[in-house]
Amino acid sequence: MSPKQAYRFVPVFVLLCVLGAVVPAASAQGIAARFERTLGAGTAPKLIKEYGGEYVLPIQERLWVEEVFARLAAQSQRPEVEYTLTVLNSREANAFSLPGGFVFITRGLLNLIGSDEAQLAAVLAHEIAHVEKKHGVNAVLRQLGLSVLAEVGAAALDFLSGDLLRLAGVTLVQMLQAGWGREAEFEADAVGQELAAQAGFDPAGSISLLETLAEVDGAEQPMHLFRTHPEPVQRQKRLEERLALFWSDPTLVAQEEVLERLKEGRNSHQDRRTDPKGRYVLEEAEKPWAGVRLFDLQTGEYVTWAQEALVREAAWSPQGTYLAVLVDAGSQGELWVLNRWGHVLRRIAGFRGEIASFSWSPQGTVLALDLVDPAGQRVAAVYINPAAVVDVSRGLDASGSQWLDDALYFLQGDSWYKTEPPQVVPVQIAEPVPLVLQRKRVLTPTLIREGSTFRLTRPELTPP
Amino acid sequence: MAERSVISVVLLAAALWAAGAAEAVMLTDPTGLYSTQIGDRWVYQAHHSTPELMVFYGEGDFELLYFQRLGPVSYPSALDFARRAVELYAGPGGLEQFELVGEYTEVKVAGEGGVACAYSYEDAQGGRVWEFRIFLVLPSGEGFSIAYSDNKPEAASAPPLEDVLMHWRWLF
Q1: Which of A394, B13, B25, B158 is the most buried if burial means most Cβ atoms within 10 Å?
Q2: In this predicted model, what pLDDT tens digit does every residue of B145-160 receive, in sequence order?
Q3: Cis peptide before A288 (omega within 30 of 0)
Q4: How many angstroms separate the CA of residue A67 from the nearest CA in chain B?
């Protein structure tokens, strides 16, 4: 703002300070919300136009996106804000929000996310968090040198002149393109992750989202989401550190029935060597051995996977989707995760301590690790997708971890403790509508002449 | 006389062959909600089906029959369910050139009350498709749909669902 512009607002500013001081706080909150809404509503059409207009999603996808958004918006701590979601017709992978509850996501980003509920929730929750924390409106006021207004009394904002609102709108667009600031992004990550977890989505979704975006960024796709954000590696690290907060505090187990089951080791997934899908059998070998040797029941032959690894132990996930392999690498060991075709998907290293044993969660998405180091023993949960490690024993000298139903149990001394991962509730659309299928057409092969010869065209299935 | 016997045998054989050709198989829903009889003119489409969605291709190039379980729904009635679906099919992001054909009619499927309606729309290739659909809200609060479509208007006015509906049984 130029000095000339600023002087025009001095009398307004003085008046507003006085008004701000005399208006009750509750009323001030409502007035500030109206100001935010006015500011956002005035800016939204310009941005919608800039991003190719509104995009109407196909029915089933729309219902799903709306349900995820509604669940997140219901967790808002600002009842005065009315949240709305607009899908933009742009290939660019982007999402942003404006003061007043206007949230935007491009079809490009929705395509990237696909049907991953946790990732969709993560990106929408991040944008809602910006509004919850008033990052946009505060940044604009700061830029205009009016931050004192917010401190004196937000009520004053209601009386801002049309000129100032227009100026605020222009500033908002400029600032949106530059980002709300590094600390605001970190805060939106943290608040968004919490919001997603409260709404029943996997808080690890925010880390998966960053992984997805990083892959696309490398592939030179239209990608502006990172441009205004801090380094993804730093964001990922902070989000990973916070993941432990969503596991319940370890509690002492007193139920006799549960203790009995734990003592007997009657956990949900005992046979680690046989492929649950019935194709492979892990071979016993002298430890440690080179690669994972399996007998393929389909071909009647032996196969060896991850030949470059010195393997100490291997275990199938309960659904047979993954094979976890404990690899000798230095003093601490690495955990490799292979898919059903022997391809190494993840190499997870850098555990603080040596891996004594590991076990799959019943869903086959998390591994519990018993770690030993000179300072003591502890239990860590290792997420496979995204790759993240969480210390779940919270300082207890923990060992002997076991999964029982959906909870993780471990021993401290002679006592069993229980901790539970965050509860994930799949999206259930209250008013779903049936699919409308269209029959795929089969093209009949035809002979076409090519010079003196004929060629038969290949019949193909065409999408509807 | 011998000639007559030969003709009778031939006729009997033809009748038996025809009966055999029209043989139907009993379909039991893998999720255990329903069973019905499916004539051999329908070919099960494993690639397009899931436990909640059973898809069959008919003899005609565009003939399609499918049953879908929708899980718990909050519709107070089958009519509300049907109206909401039609509203979305007709709206933005729905079906191209959507037209409701006729009115909503009450139907019974093995004793359960539902609502049927027919509509037409333009498919991805630009051809006109007519679809007849039954909407049900089962006593458990679950939504269910039976649909038949073809590229002929008769699909809406006279869908060949007699056998399927006559042999329909709910397994709850």
Answers
A1: A394
A2: 999 999 999 999 999 9
A3: yes
A4: 14
Digit-coded pLDDT (tens) for B35-69: 999 998 899 998 899 999 999 999 888 999 999 99
At A157 the pLDDT is 55
Q: How many helices (H) and strands (E) does chain A have?
A: 13, 21
**Edge-to-edge order in the sheet of strand A388-391:** A354-360, A366-373, A376-383, A388-391
* Shortest CA distance from A56: residue in chain B: B93
Q: Which two tokens stand for residue A191?
A: 């608040």
Q: What residues have CB less than 8 Å from A389, skipping those under 6 apart? A: A240, A348, A350, A351, A380, A381, A382, A383
Give the Cβ contact number of residue A338 at 10 Å.
Answer: 20
Kindly give the residue spans of alpha helices, DSSP state H, lying in A74-204.
Answer: 107-113, 117-132, 135-143, 147-152, 162-178, 182-198
Encoded amino acid at A400, one letter:
G
Geometric angle at alpha carbon B33, from B29 and B34, rounded to 5° = 65
DSSP E strands, chain B: 24-28, 34-39, 43-44, 53-57, 64-72, 96-109, 112-122, 128-137, 142-150, 169-170
The three-class DSSP label of residue A129 is helix
Does B71 touch chain A if contact means CB atoms closer than 8 Å? yes
Residue A299 and residue A305: Cα distance in Å, rounded? 16
Q: Which candidate from B70, B93, B123 shows the least CB-CB separation from A464? A: B123
Query: Cα–Cα distance between B99 and B90 in angstroms, integer?
Result: 7
- Tell me the two tokens of residue B96: 């191209």
Please list every residue in chain A whose beta carbon sits closer than 8 Å to the beta carbon of residue B73: 430-432
Least CA distance to B92: which residue of chain A?
A: A56
Interface probe, candidates B73, B96, B131, chain A, greatest A C-beta count within 10 A: B73
ipTM higher than the 0.90 cut: no
> How would you list the strands of the sheet with A407-412, edge to edge?
A251-252, A415-419, A407-412, A399-404
Choose among A432, A463, A464: nearest Cβ to B143: A432
Chain A interface disruption, residue of B43, B50, B79, B145, most A CBs within 10 A: B145
Amino acid, single-letter form, for residue A103:
V
* Percent with pLDDT over 70 in chain A: 80
Task: Test B48 with A437 for CB contact under 8 angstroms.
Answer: yes
Please give the torsion angle defined by the CA atoms of residues A297, A299, A303 and A305, in that order, rounded to the nearest 10 degrees: -80
Closest Cα to residue B40, out of B20, B68, B15?
Answer: B20
Tokens representing A188 are 């939106």
Q: Which residues contact B22 (CB under 8 A, 6 or more apart)?
A: B39, B40
Please give, rounded to a whole number of angstroms, the shortest distance from the CA of B23 to a CA of chain A.
24
Per-residue model confidence as pLDDT tens digits over B67-77: 999 999 999 99
What's the average model confidence in pLDDT over B115-144?
96
